[in-house]
Design goal:
348 residues; alpha/beta; Restriction Endonuclease; 2 domains; 4-stranded mixed sheet; two-stranded antiparallel ribbon; serine/threonine-protein kinase; Serine/threonine protein kinase; protein serine/threonine kinase activity; transferase
Length: 348
């Protein structure tokens, strides 16, 4: 299966975590991971604790747990409701963090609650009163990362990768179904083909793979043409035009880069571009990578591309030699102009 991002769906919506993970528990763990990553943007030296059996009331922290000052972040995935139950959970989480600090011998310097919602008026009033009371009695600075604060952090430039990771959803698509690759049994059958001659003219003499690629592209082209499905015929024509453009762009650049010498990197640059472009070809023609490489060789074989600056001259000479080899089947013309039959006897 291939994971495909849904472009334009990166809205910061913490409800999405339930859909993404499939459960509230999964969303809670996902939210905690996001908080840790955001703390890491501000404090690269942050750390966390695994539950063994408890987590000391810490989801992320900065500082030393050995005789030091520690800043703690606690996540609470309060997404649906906020009332007395949630207030009690906040109190319990804070008291646990404070008690663990006293027990383990470090100082709880700051405690930040992180939750994916904003408080209404009454609950904001409760939070402000509780925060003021605990800061005065415990000497701990208490802060709140609510929905608006989290959104602001996520929209910062430093948090771009985190925002994309958590809020650009993906969908699973089946891997594309490509047509099978057929093994070429007789490589000699293409020995005189123009696409082979163009490769050899450019100094590339290992052409068997290119012959097999061309062979498979020919099968693809014939099957699409024979079926004559308009959508597939148009898709194949469009694909070949796109591949031709990839060649032309790199041919022009290669000529500019080396006005007098051979175009050494042209072949590999074109084929690398074809490899990158291959997944973008229409699924309807089911072109595997071998077929796609072969379509480039087809274009060369048609005289519309090549691997050297003078590829047009090579194509012209090839066409002239092919025309010269086309002779009548029943007789030939002798040097002195008299017709001879196939056995070499003169006609009356």
């Amino acid at each position: 299966m291939t994971q495909v991002p849904l472009i334009g769906m990166g809205t910061i919506n913490f409800e999405f975590f339930k859909i993404k993970t499939g459960s509230v528990d999964g969303a809670r763990a996902h939210f905690e991971e996001m908080i840790q990553d955001l703390v890491g943007v501000i404090h690269p030296d942050f750390s966390t604790l695994d539950a063994n059996p408890g987590d000391w009331g810490i989801d992320a922290y900065v500082g030393s747990l050995v005789d030091g000052d520690v800043n703690v972040w606690q996540s609470k995935y309060f997404i649906d409701d906020f009332g007395k139950s949630q207030q009690d959970q906040i109190r319990d989480a804070y008291e646990q963090a404070l008690a663990c600090a006293k027990r383990e011998g470090y100082t709880l310097s700051t405690w930040t609650l992180c939750m994916p919602r904003n408080l209404d008026g009454p609950n904001e009033k409760w939070w402000t009163g509780w925060k003021k009371k605990k800061e005065k009695s415990d000497g701990v600075r208490i802060a709140l990362w609510n929905q608006v604060q989290l959104r602001r952090l996520l929209l910062s430039e430093d948090a771009t990768n985190i925002r994309n990771y958590y809020f650009n959803p993906t969908v699973s698509l089946p891997d594309p179904s490509y047509r099978p690759t057929v093994t070429l049994a007789n490589f000699d059958q293409y020995e005189g083909a123009l696409f082979v001659r163009q490769m050899e003219h450019a100094g590339m003499f290992e052409c068997d793979d290119a012959k097999e690629e061309f062979f498979n592209a020919e099968i693809l082209s014939h099957e699409v043409t024979d079926k004559a499905v308009t959508e597939e015929v148009e898709a194949l024509s469009r694909s070949k035009a796109e591949l031709g453009s990839l060649w032309a762009q790199r041919f022009n650049v290669a000529c500019q880069a080396n006005p007098d010498g051979p175009l050494v990197d042209l072949y590999v640059n074109v084929m690398d571009a074809v490899r990158d472009h291959h997944p973008k070809l229409p699924a309807s023609i089911r072109s595997g990578l071998v077929h796609t490489f072969g379509m480039v060789h087809q274009r060369v074989n048609d005289g519309r591309a090549g691997w050297a600056r003078d590829y047009r001259d090579v194509a012209r000479e090839h066409l002239q030699s092919v025309d010269a080899d086309k002779v009548p089947t029943n007789n030939t013309t002798s040097v002195d102009g008299e017709n001879e039959n196939a056995s070499g006897e003169q006609n009356d």
